[in-house]
Design a protein that fits this description.
379 residues; alpha/beta; TIM Barrel; Recoverin, domain 1; 2 domains; two-stranded parallel ribbon; 14 helices; elongated; amino-acid biosynthesis; LeuA/HCS_post-cat; acyltransferase; leucine biosynthesis; 2-isopropylmalate synthase
């Protein structure tokens, strides 16, 4: 089995479903080009049948981006698939991503259907999509809550119909990592033609487990991950691209890799945040403002002695210029001495002790002490 994990980015489709985060076509092209530069394998550019704007975006991204596969979403409905196929005419490498619900909850309550009819509709959708593109991905919506035997039957059927990728999504963020990993393993053990397709995973973050579930899926054989920058997306969001990429890069014992240039993660995160007007939480893994910031005196002392005491990755590896020492009332003498020396001030221990006492008084009032405050303090 290949040890490469393909990165399928759906920032411009699922990520854009966040209320208030819609982008114009021109803005989408800017983001798509940055995703291409970063090394994303597949860009899901939109849902063409949903609106003229989305149709146009898929067309224009297909014309503007050449290296990644450009993917268009559709339901397992002929009109949706036709719209996706038309929108992808200009793509160098196009993919239609079609699918239907796989859990009994969806089959009964969303489609008012039966497992038998869902199988028929899924097979027909894949076959129709193949008339437009060779590369067809099928999504078994709500696979996280689907019956395993039926999920395996559905997966085998769509692969026989021509699907080149099968997406086993935890659409509602329902699964625990062990549970989801076993679901992917079951697919590999019970689908006789599984070697003819790539198994993909798309995890939502409703229980805060999207990245953990995605890694569990990959460790059990999935080789495509569907992610967004900053983890944006429907409800609580999707798996974060940056978290999966860096987890695979840091945990070398897994023997897995991506083609992502990780030094582009922080700049692209900022671009997406600004364009979608959606701030990244300060403590967000990898790209948050505090991801490489140290304010505890114990941590600052250990970090200044040797960065690996408290950092498992180099900030340069993700495009962050440098780590930061944040001076607060929790900071110790080592951090204060370090910042003062950066400003050109060196003191003997008794003098530094006196400055430190005054520093704590200032930090209690101002919460965070910056370089201007330090200049005031030493004067």
């Amino acid at each position: 089995m290949s040890q490469r994990v393909y990165i399928f980015d759906t920032t411009l489709r699922d990520g854009e479903q966040v209320p208030g985060c819609q982008l114009t076509t021109d803005e989408k092209i800017v983001v798509a080009k940055e995703l291409e530069r970063m090394g994303v394998d597949v860009i899901e550019a939109g849902f063409p049948i949903s609106s003229p704007g989305d149709f146009k975006s898929v067309v224009e991204i297909s014309k503007s981006v050449t290296e990644p596969t450009i993917c268009a979403l559709s339901r397992a409905v002929k009109g949706d698939i036709d719209a996706a196929g038309e929108a992808l005419k200009w793509a160098k490498r196009g993919r239609i991503h079609t699918g239907i619900g796989s859990s009994d909850i969806h089959i009964r309550n969303k489609f008012g259907s039966t497992r038998e009819k869902i199988l028929e509709q899924a097979i027909a959708a894949v076959k129709h999509a193949k008339t437009y593109v060779e590369d067809v991905e099928f999504y078994a919506e709500d696979a996280g809550r689907a019956d395993l035997a039926f999920l395996a039957q559905l997966t085998e059927a769509v692969i026989n119909a021509g699907a080149t990728v099968v997406n086993i999504p935890d659409t509602t963020g329902y699964c625990l990592p062990d549970e989801y990993g076993k679901k992917i393993a079951y697919i590999y053990e019970h689908v006789t033609n599984v070697h003819k397709a790539v198994i993909s995973i798309h995890c939502h973050n409703d229980l805060g487990l999207a990245t953990a579930n995605t890694l569990a899926g990959v460790m059990n054989g999935a080789r495509q991950v569907e992610v967004t920058m900053n983890g944006i997306g429907e409800r609580a969001g999707n798996t974060s691209l940056e978290e999966v990429v860096m987890a695979l890069k840091i945990k070398k014992e897994l023997g897995l890799h991506t083609n992502i240039d990780s030094t582009r993660l922080f700049p692209v995160s900022n671009l997406v945040s600004q364009m979608m007007r959606m701030p990244v939480q300060a403590n967000k893994a990898i790209v948050g403002r505090n991801a490489f910031a140290h304010s505890s005196g114990i941590h600052q002392d250990g970090f200044l002695k040797h960065s690996e005491n408290y950092e498992i990755m180099n900030p340069h590896d993700v495009g962050v210029p440098k780590s930061s020492i944040v001076l607060t009332a929790r900071s110790g003498r080592h951090a204060l001495k370090h910042r003062l020396e950066l400003l050109g001030y060196r003191y003997d221990k008794p003098t530094l002790d006196g400055i430190y006492t005054r520093f704590l008084d200032m930090a209690d009032i101002r919460k965070e002490v910056n370089d201007k405050d330090l200049m005031e303090l030493v004067r």
